[in-house]
Amino acid sequence: SRKYALEFLIFCCFADKLLDSRRFDFEQKKQVSRLLGLYGVMEEDNKFYELKWFVEDVSKYITRYKNSEKRNYIEDLVNAAFISEVYMWKIPIEKKEKFLQKDGYLLLDKSIKFEEVALLLALGEDFEESDCKVANLIAKIMWLTDDLCDFTQDIKENRRNSLFYLNMPECELDMNKRGQYALYNMDNYVVFTWILLTSCFKYSPFGV
Known about the structure:
Strand content: under 5%
Helix content: 55-70%
Radius of gyration: 18 Å
Largest sheet: 2 strands, antiparallel
Order of helices and strands: HHHHEHHEH
Number of strands: 2
Strand order of the largest sheet: 1-2
Number of helices: 7
C-alpha cells in the first residue's frame, strides 16, 4: 500500500510543478490537466503519458478495495483534489478579484486532499475514522506550512496562494491589498498551524 501512496504523491507533485512552471505553454499544461482523473482515457498523443502510469496504477489499486464505502471515500478525496488543481491552474489572476469565502475549497483541496489521500493509501483498507481525522490534520499542517513558506515567492512569481484569499473581505481587491491583509493575518496562521500540530498529539500511541 505504501508503494501506491508514493506513486500518487509523485504524480501529484509532478503535475503541480508542471502546471506552475513557466517553461510549459498553455497547450502543454492542458495535456497535463487531462491526466487529472482516476479513470480517464489516455490520449496517445499526450506528451506526458509517463505520468499517467502512476495514477493508473493507483486507480487499479483503489478498485480492488473490498469495502465500497472506503473506496468511495478515497475517490471523493481524489476528485476534489483534481478539481482544485485544475481551478488553480486555469483561472487567471486578475488585477482586481472578488473571492467568496464559501469557495475556499477550490484553493485548499489541491493541497489538503492530495496529502490526505497519500496518507490513507499508505494504510490500505485498514484505515479507521480516527486515521481520517489524523490524515486531515496532517494535511492541513502541510498546506499551511507550504503556503507560508511560498508566500514571498508566490508574490514575486504572481502565483495564486490561498493566504491571499482566505479571511478576506468579499469585494474586489488587488494583489497589493490582498498581500497587506495576508500579512495582517500571518500571526493567526502560525498559531493555527501550532493548534493543528498539538491536536495530532492526542492520537499518538505514546500519549505525547
